[in-house]
Every structure is written in structure tokens, then in C-alpha cells.
Specification:
The complex is a heterodimer of chains A (206) and B (180). Chain A has 206 residues and is an alpha+beta fold. Chain A has 6 helices and 9 strands, in the order αααααββββββαβββ. In chain A, a hairpin with a 5-residue loop joins strand 7 and strand 8. With 180 residues, chain B is mainly α. Chain B is 67% helix and 0% strand. The two termini of chain B are 34 Å apart. The chains are: A alpha+beta (206), B mainly alpha (180).
């Protein structure tokens, strides 16, 4: 509940109930504030926190760590184990369908899998936007778009393109002065989630 | 009018300043330089209403202050929207000292997060940074949703242990004292 509140995922009534509660409950407020501090830092500095260490003095390279760990005996045992796994992997195990991509930080990647960048709309806009646009993700067969206001999902749609128009009935309901958030997720042809964007927010100036 | 409810106002300010500040900053953004003034206005209004007998004790003090807080926030947003429509506003700069303190606290926490084991960093990344649902995080990592929750909660505990306890008692305003 605390996390959903902090991430704006509670409905209006639930939100009010939660807030009234922590105005009356010191321990719940302390816990909410602690989690809020963590979430704020992750949101503001996530790119840096979850990026691989780039400074040479920050830590030993993976190869240095492996070299320090492996004695000659361990090298031999590791080589034998690798050979066994290779034989088993190639000759014995059935081929599995590809599952969710391996998550690993490599090079300049600060996200797992690929980055999904949202283009428009974002920030303050003078008119209700007509379309939502984002950058393509390699390997994506389709994208799912979700539009929310506070915790309420207003609209969700799927497309193979990197752009989608607001349906007329949704666009007409977009009100000035209220923040709307949207997020896009990319799926492979097998239906595996391969990338998700951060949520982008826009507000129509009254 | 009913006689005023007996309230220790010093205790009220100490108790509710951080809570009001948290709610105001969440509604307006922590970088909004007006938040402290609004917190002070809310506290003064609450104290004024209690002294004048307007607060009759029909609800808790916390609920009473919550109501004043939400109304003030709505009023502030209306005032700001009106100003923006009528004339462009020169943005006021945040207090440099506040910025430095905020940055230091954030850096301490960021360092602590970076030191977490990958399995805990992963869930924080996917659940908080990418805002995936518990089920999506579970599918991405090949674990159960219950395990996702367990790791998120445990990561929070680890961070609290690693950090100085005082870090989490940062004030929502300049004069907050630690309650006994």
C-alpha cells in the first residue's frame, strides 16, 4: 500500500484514506517517509545508481576479480565443469523457447534489455495531444500503451507502430490542469516483455 | 462556540510539521520553493482554529490538520494556475543550503543502493525505477510475485541498516525537533 501510494497508484478515495491514516499514525508516517526518500533517490538518480561503475578506482574489473579468485586447482575444476556443461547443453538438454532476456549491464546500458524512449507528449502542452510517439525498440513486434490519471487507467491500446492516435472520445475527455501519465511496453513476437519506458507526464495548460 | 480543545501547540507543531511538509512536497514537488511557507500557513491556520474553538474535537487533530492541508494545497494550485494564465512568472530559485543538504542525503542513499547485492538492486530497479507491476517484475526475473515483495521489503531493511538512523529523521522544515 505504501509503495502504491508513493508511486501514485492508489485511487482517489484510497489515497485520501491512506493520507488521513498517516496524519494520525506516527509509525506509519515514519515508514512512508523512509520509503519515500528511497523512491525519490531512485527516481532522480536511477540512471546513475543502476549504471555500471565507470571510474577505474571504483572497483576491480571482473577479470581482475576472477583472476584473484581462481587458483590453479580451481582453474582446473572450473575448466572441467565448463566442459561438462557444454556437452550437456549442446547434446542432451532440449531446446527451450526463449524466455525473458538475460538482464545484464553491459557497456553504456543503464537499463536491462533495451531502453524505450518516449517522445511526445511530455511536460506542459497547450492543446490536448493528438498522438503519442516513442522510439522503436529492436526486436519489438508490438507495443502496449497505457494512459493514466492518478491511479485510474483511462485508456490502453496495442500497436505495431511507434505512434498511436488518441481516440476521439479519449481526447475529448483530456482536461486542462490535471497531470496525465503514459507508459509504453515493448513485446517480442513471442509475447515476451522486452522493454518498458519510464512513465512520462503531460499537463494541458488551462 | 464550544470552548477550545486542550492542545499543546508546541507539541502539535513538532508532531505535524514533518507530516504536513511531506504531504505538501508530494503534492507540489520538493523543488517548489513555496512549500515551507505553505506548511507554516497551515500550522498557523490550524492553531488559530483550535484557539478560536472552531475545532470541536469531533475528529482527531490529525484528521483536522489533514483537511486544512488538502484545502490549502488546492487553493495554492488554483492561485498558481491563475497567475500562470495571466502573466508569466519568474521562477524563484531554491535555497542553495537546502539544495546542498538534499544532495548530500540523496548521495548517501544512492551509495547505499549501489552497494546492495544484484538481486536486491534488480527488484528496486524494475519495481521503483521502471514502475513495473509486481507480476511483471516476477516474470522478468523468473521469480514469484511474493518473492518480489520479499526482496523489495528486505532491500528497504538493508538500506535502513546501512544508513545512519538520523538520515530518515530529516526535517520537513527548519525547526523540527526529534520527539521523545
Amino acid at each position: 500500500m505504501i509503495d502504491r501510494y508513493l508511486m501514485g497508484k492508489l485511487g482517489e478515495a484510497e489515497n485520501t484514506r491512506f493520507e488521513k491514516h498517516y496524519f494520525n499514525c506516527r509509525s506509519c508516517f515514519d515508514l512512508t517517509r523512509e520509503r519515500g526518500a528511497i523512491l525519490d533517490v531512485i527516481k532522480q538518480r536511477g540512471d546513475m545508481i543502476f549504471a555500471p561503475a565507470t571510474r577505474p578506482e571504483a572497483q576491480a574489473s571482473p577479470w581482475e576479480k576472477v583472476a584473484a579468485f581462481l587458483t590453479p586447482r580451481r582453474w582446473a575444476a572450473a575448466a572441467l565443469a565448463a566442459a561438462v556443461l557444454l556437452v550437456v547443453g549442446l547434446g542432451v538438454l532440449p531446446r527451450f523457447k526463449s524466455s525473458a532476456p538475460e538482464f545484464a549491464f553491459t557497456g553504456d546500458e543503464t537499463v536491462r534489455g533495451e531502453t524505450l524512449e518516449l517522445l511526445n507528449p511530455s511536460g506542459t502542452v497547450t492543446l490536448p495531444p493528438e498522438t503519442l510517439e516513442w522510439k522503436a525498440v529492436g526486436g519489438a513486434a508490438e507495443y502496449t500503451v497505457v494512459l493514466t490519471r492518478e491511479a485510474e487507467t483511462l485508456w490502453t491500446a496495442t500497436t505495431a507502430e511507434t505512434k498511436i492516435a488518441f481516440p476521439k472520445n479519449i481526447r475529448e475527455k483530456l482536461a486542462a490542469g490535471r497531470p496525465y501519465r503514459w507508459q509504453v511496453k515493448a513485446y517480442s513476437a513471442e509475447g515476451t516483455l522486452i522493454a518498458a519506458s519510464l512513465k512520462s507526464q503531460f499537463t494541458i495548460i488551462p | 462556540m464550544n470552548p477550545p480543545v486542550d492542545v499543546d501547540f508546541d507539541e502539535l507543531i513538532i508532531r505535524y510539521r514533518p507530516v504536513i511538509g511531506f504531504k505538501v512536497k508530494k503534492a507540489l514537488g520538493g523543488a517548489n520553493p513555496d512549500w515551507e511557507d505553505i506548511v507554516n500557513e497551515i500550522l498557523m491556520q490550524a492553531i488559530g482554529k483550535i484557539k478560536s474553538g472552531e475545532f470541536r474535537g469531533e475528529s482527531t487533530v490529525g484528521t483536522f490538520i489533514y483537511t486544512i492541508t488538502t484545502r490549502r494545497i488546492v487553493d495554492y494550485i488554483r492561485e498558481k494556475t491563475k497567475v500562470l494564465r495571466e502573466a508569466p512568472e519568474v521562477p524563484s530559485l531554491p535555497d542553495p543550503q537546502d539544495e546542498v543538504e538534499r544532495d548530500e542525503r540523496a548521495e548517501t542513499l544512492a551509495r547505499a543502493i549501489r552497494k546492495l547485492k544484484p538481486k536486491f538492486k534488480d527488484v528496486l530497479y524494475l519495481y521503483y525505477y521502471k514502475e513495473l507491476s509486481r507480476e511483471e517484475v516476477a516474470r522478468s526475473l523468473g521469480i514469484t510475485p511474493a518473492k518480489v515483495s520479499e526482496r523489495v521489503n528486505y532491500a528497504q531493511k538493508l538500506l535502513r541498516k546501512q544508513l545512519d538512523a538520523d538520515f530518515f529523521h530529516f526535517s520537513a522544515g527548519p525547526a523540527t525537533k526529534r520527539l521523545k
